[in-house]
Amino acid sequence: MSTDAIVLLKNDHKTVEKLFKEFEKAGEEAYAEKRRLADSIIEELTVHAYIEEEIFYPAAREAVPETKDHVLESVEEHHVVVWMLSELLGMDPKDETFDAKVTVLTENVRHHVEEEEDEWFPEVRSAMGRKKLQELGQRMLDARGDAPKNPLELKSAKA
Ligand SMILES: [Fe+2]
Ligand SMILES: [Fe+2]
Question: Average pLDDT for residues 48-55, to the nearest whole number?
Answer without folding.
Answer: 98
